[in-house]
Amino acid sequence: MKWRITTSEPEAPPRFRERLQTELGERCSRNPNYSLRAFALDLATDHSTLSQLLRGKRRMTEASIRALGGQLGLDEEELDAWVDAERTPKVPPATRSLDADTAALAPAWPHDALLELLAIEGFRPDARWIAATLGISVDEVGLALHQLLRLGLLEMAAADRWEDLLGDARARGDVEPPPPAHRLEGATLTAVVDRRRLGELRARIRAWCAELGSELEQHTTRDALVRIDLNLALLTSGAAAGDPDEEETWDDPSPVGRS
Amino acid sequence: MGRPVTRWQILSRDPDATASFYGELFDWQVDADNPLGARMVRTGGEGGIEGGIWPAPPEAPSFVQLFVDVPDVEDAVSRAEGLGARVLVPPSTLPDGERMAVLHDPQGLPFVVHQRAAGDG
Q: What is the pTM of this model?
């Protein structure tokens, strides 16, 4: 399951894993020739270890932070801060967090759809089949495959076995419009509301997403791929919008942390 | 044992236009009926090597890659990295059983190390 989240609320303090992911995304943005393998080389580690660290499959130890952070040129003070952050108790996220740069290089459509498609019954590692299934061109599939391989989000382990290395993930950033094809249901609600209850609305959306995510994971038959979009946008500004500080805030956890 | 260049590949911002251009100019035959949907190019005649056309990433200009046949992709990648190359796409197994990896040489020129499928002479 892949989440793309746009929110104006601050996120929890990042861990060193996210610092690495951000660095990789920035380097890939600056240099089209850059990749996970190149990043591992620059950090004087092997790509398998780095991939596991980024995916949360390997524990980020103090030694790892100091070795990798040292290669990034971080000073002792910064390294101490990252080590302290790692020690801070935190509910482990159930999902991998994708930084903004990586998310921009591999936008939800069609990259998330392609990765999720690997789990569908009857999946065929064939660009023509993927293109026909998603309703996109074979060239679009080829480009998405290239980008996912380059970013270490996909592995072609064998001729008939492709692996989703991203897994359950969330990314913050702009949520692009949904693909036009195959729309089943849509609704837009525009209404005047109490600004002080916007936090309540946000919380309800998150709770609903979390509930729906949990429900979808219970599906034992997996033969269809869907995308669900839900947006809450504040359309008024200036005097009519009142004082933003009056907005009620809720401490509801992100739905993806519970999925 | 040699390490021959066995294929070239044009990465084009407009693969269809590129295929049309070279098809008309040289009468090259293009066939994309394969599991990756790659446009495989038959140049005809004797003595040359065949090629392909693939979409270029949005952030890159059109360019050409050479495919070098190797007996073991992982070994070739390790040796290349030792000589200063950087891996763009790690060793991957294609649907037809071939293995390949995309690298950049120390001057930044992309190339592909390619291993034929088992039993594919």
A: 0.70
Domain shared by B23 and B76, yes or no: no
Q: Which residue of A has its CA nearest to B111?
A: A33
Q: What is the pLDDT of residue A251?
A: 41
**Last residue in a domain, options B62, B82, B101:** B62
Residue B100 corresponds to which amino acid?
Answer: M
CA A48 – CA A259 distance, rounded (Å): 26
- The answer to whether residues B49 and B80 belong to one domain is no
A:B CB pairs within 8 Å: 78
Residues 9-38 of A with CB under 8 A from B: 32-38
- The whole-angstrom separation of Cα A95 and Cα A89 is 17
Output the domain CATH number for residue B75.
3.10.180.10
Residue where one domain finishes, among candidates B62, B85, B108: B62
Query: Do both B44 and B75 map to the same domain?
Result: no
* Contact state of B57 with A160 under an 8 Å Cβ cutoff: no
pLDDT in tens, A11-34: 556 788 888 888 888 888 788 778
| Number of compact structural domains in chain B | 2
The range of the structural domain enclosing residue B102 comes to: 70-121
With both helix axes pointing from N to C terminus, report the angle between A62-71 and A76-87 in degrees, rounded to the nearest 10. Answer: 150
User: Hey, what's the torsion of the CAs at A32, A33, A38, A42, to 10 degrees?
Assistant: -80
Name the strand (E) or helix (H) holding A17: helix A16-30
Residue of B14, B78, B102 for testing the chain A interface, max A β-carbons within 10 Å = B102
Is the pLDDT at A94 greater than 70? The verdict is: no
For A217-229, write each residue's pLDDT tens digit.
888 898 988 888 7
The reply to whether residue B57 touches residue A32, judged by beta carbons under 8 angstroms, is: yes
Residue A237 has pLDDT above 80, yes or no: no
- Domain identity same for B91 and B116: yes
**What pLDDT does residue A105 have?**
79
A37, A50, A126: which to substitute to probe chain B, counting the most B Cβ within 10 Å? A37
> What pLDDT sits at residue A8?
59
